[in-house]
Design brief:
alpha+beta; Heme iron utilization protein-like fold; nine-stranded antiparallel β-sheet; globular
Length: about 350
């Protein structure tokens, strides 16, 4: 990121907004070569209240404000979910968090650094939100007040978490590389297909997948490339949209995962309204919105993993940097086998795409 002086950045942001009134702050930050948090700190069309970095406690306290809209995104996918932060739990000695319910999250709290309450006065309507950022100033998660939110409880929460320092200095920190246990990564040598398949076939839970990657010293994408088509099959790009359309047409409940370095946000249920707008394929339901930039997708895979409940099948969507954008599963709970209807849908799609 550039180290643009604050006054110059504020001027540039105001000029960009004047030229492109509808530009989103994430896109503006990319255009100006700064982080979203830095752009927010200029104070253009926003009033800010910096909050104490007690992120886990803050997420727990959100239950008291009632229904909100939770937003998690990456470069190519936006996941918006309405509901209440029910019974948020902090685990892993404060490094992790989990929220189960209408707002369904898996949170990596050790990557969260900044929290700020934002009153955005730049649009047709004033919007109130709490926004969370990492050490590089990237937006991780945003919580928006809605008509269903208890406004007085929201205001009390902001007061309870208001930081003593309301003029913090920001300096972006470098991203720490992921640690692996494998010497093969350091030597540049990949494990053999047989080694990957042996580990893959020994899986008992989809949540053990990351530990498997760490043992092998490879990333997720390399694993898909190495394991073989019976476990990971590359599909045409249009398979991402096709999967959502088929699930919608069949009334099949699915799980939609969108994440970034800080968390994963999950929706479970039947998809209703779908609509394409330019490069974006959208799910537009009352309690759930998904916006997926299908024109920027690099690859799509159908993936099958062993669990103690049988095979679990997913559709995984990747960016050009080979980062996971979105994952789709059939609805299931631990201890239950995967939906046969979901398995059939994936097989039908694979067959159709191969023809």
């Amino acid at each position: 990121m550039n180290t643009t002086p604050p006054n110059e950045l504020k001027k540039s942001w105001m000029e960009l907004k004047a030229a492109s009134p509808n530009i989103r702050i994430r896109n503006a930050a990319e255009t100006l070569g700064v982080s979203e948090y830095e752009l927010l700190l200029t104070g253009v069309d926003v009033n800010l209240t910096h909050l104490e970095a007690r992120h886990g406690e803050l997420l727990q306290a959100l239950e008291g404000v009632g229904s909100v809209m939770a937003l998690t995104r990456n470069d190519l996918a936006v996941h918006e979910k309405h509901g209440t932060y029910t019974n948020f739990k902090v685990t892993g000695k404060g490094a992790m968090g989990i929220c189960l319910g209408a707002i369904d999250l898996r949170v990596f709290l050790n990557r969260w650094r900044h929290a700020v309450a934002v009153t955005d006065t730049g649009g047709k309507q004033t919007r109130h939100s709490i926004q969370f950022f990492d050490a590089q100033g990237n937006a991780l998660h945003k919580v928006y007040q809605t008509e269903a939110t208890n406004q007085s409880a929201w205001e009390n929460l902001i007061r309870s978490f208001t930081a003593g320092d309301q003029e913090p200095q920001f300096q972006s920190q470098p991203i720490e590389p992921e640690q692996t246990d494998s010497e093969k990564t350091e030597s540049g040598q990949l494990p053999t297909r047989e080694a990957v398949r042996e580990e893959w076939q020994s899986l008992k839970d989809v949540h053990h997948f990351n530990a498997m990657l760490k043992r092998l010293g490879i990333d997720r994408y390399q694993a898909l490339q190495l394991v073989g088509e019976d476990y990971a099959k590359q599909l045409p790009i249009e398979s991402a949209e096709k999967t959502l359309q088929m699930a919608q047409q069949q009334g099949l409940p699915i799980m939609v995962f969108v994440g970034n370095r800080g968390l994963v946000q999950i929706h479970t249920g039947v998809i209703g309204k779908v609509l394409r707008t330019g490069p974006w394929f959208n799910v537009l339901d009352p309690d759930f919105n998904l916006h997926l930039n299908t024109e920027a997708i690099y690859s799509v895979w159908s993936v099958r993993r062993h669990t103690s409940d049988g095979i679990v099948t997913s559709v995984e969507i990747y960016s050009r940097t080979k980062e996971l954008i979105t994952t789709l599963f059939g609805e299931r709970k631990p201890g239950q086998p995967e939906s046969e209807q979901w398995q059939k849908l994936i097989k039908e799609m694979e067959k159709e795409m191969d023809s």
